[in-house]
Amino acid sequence: MNTYKMYIIETLSNMHVGSGDTHFGIVDNLIQRNPVTNIPVIHASGIKGSIREYFDHLLKYNNSNTNLEKDEVIELFGSEVEGGPETPDALKNSPGHLIFFEANMLTLPLRSNQNVFYNCTSEAIIIDYLNMFEDFIRKVPEFNDLKAFLKTMNFRNHDFYYFNDVDDLEIEDYTKGMKYKSQIPDSVKKAFNTYLNIDINNLAIFDSSLFSRICKDSIPVVARNYIKEDGTSGNLFYEEVLPRKTTLYFLLGYDSYLNQNSKKNLKDKFEKEFNNNGKVYQFGANYSIGYGFSKIVKVIE
C-alpha cells in the first residue's frame, strides 16, 4: 500500500523554473504554470530532479555526512541512465520507488502599504490544498471549520480579506480590501499555522478569479544580460521569477515496495536525511547567480 506525506517549499531566493516553451512576447522566459488556472507550479519531474541532484551531490562530495549508499539512492529515485558496470543488474533501468507530485503554489508575496509584503493566496488554492491532504493522507477535523470559514467571505464587493489590525490596507494596486471583523475560531488558526505553515496575521485571501489574473500578469519580471562566449555583453532578455518567500506544496509518496517491513530501514534512512529542516535545495535554473534556493518543511501528519 502506498503512503504519502505533504511538504511545503519556501523560496529563500528568487526562483525561475522555466516552462521551456518558445515565446515571442515581451517576456522571453516564462515560468511553469497550471494551464487552466495560470497558477505557478513546478512539474513533478523538476521536483524529483532537484532532490535527486541534492542526494547525488551529497554522495559525491559529502559522503561522510550521509548514511545512504549509492545503490540505495538508485533504489529510491531510479537509475538516470542504463547504469554503469558498478550498478547492480537489479537496479539498471529501475524507475525508483519514490512518487513525486508537482508542486502547486500556496502563497505569493505581494507588496503592501502597511508591511514589506503580505502572503497572498485565494480560496480556491486553499481548498485544493485541503482536499489533496485529505485525499492522500488523512481527514482533519479542523479542515471542516476552515472550509466553513472561507465560505463566510463575500468577494462581491471586495478584492481580498485580511486578518490583522490595520486600516486602509493596499496590496499592489488593489485597495478594496476588507478586514475580517468576526472572531476567528481557534481551530481555523490552528489549521493555518499547523497544516499550511501560514501566519494568519500576515495573510491576505483574494478572490480566486482575481488571484489567477495576478498570477498570470503580475509575476515579477527580471531583466538579464546575455553574455557571449567571448565574454562581451549581448542583448538583454527578460524572465519571470517567483519572488523570495513564495511558498508551494507537494506530495511525496512511498510505494508498496518501500512500505514493506524489509525496506523500513531504507525508508527511515531517507526520511532522516530529507526531513532535516536545515537543508537547502535548489530548484530551476540559474544556480550560479543564486536562484531557486529553498527550504523544504514536512507538514505535520
Notable characteristics:
two-stranded antiparallel ribbon, 301 residues, Elongation Factor Tu (Ef-tu), domain 3, alpha+beta
Number of discrete domains: 2
**CA radius of gyration:** 21 Å
Computed structural class: alpha+beta
DSSP summary: helix tally: 7
What does this structure look like?
The chain is of the alpha+beta class. It has helices spanning 44-61, 70-77, 123-136, 141-151, 186-195, 208-217, 264-274; strands at residues 3-11, 41-42, 98-100, 103-110, 118-122, 160-162, 177-179, 203-206, 221-227, 233-240, 247-254, 281-282, 293-298. The strands form 2 sheets. Strands 1, 2, 3, 4, 5, 6, 7, 8, 11, 12 and 13 form an 11-stranded mixed β-sheet that branches. The chain has a two-stranded antiparallel sheet with strand order 9-10. Helix 4 packs across helix 5 (186-195). The longest helix has 18 residues, at 44-61. 30% of the residues are buried.
Secondary structure topology:
Blueprint: E1 3-11, E2 41-42, H1 44-61, H2 70-77, E3 98-100, E4 103-110, E5 118-122, H3 123-136, H4 141-151, E6 160-162, E7 177-179, H5 186-195, E8 203-206, H6 208-217, E9 221-227, E10 233-240, E11 247-254, H7 264-274, E12 281-282, E13 293-298
Parallel strand pairs: 5-8, 6-7
Antiparallel strand pairs: 1-11, 1-13, 2-4, 3-11, 4-5, 4-11, 6-8, 9-10, 12-13
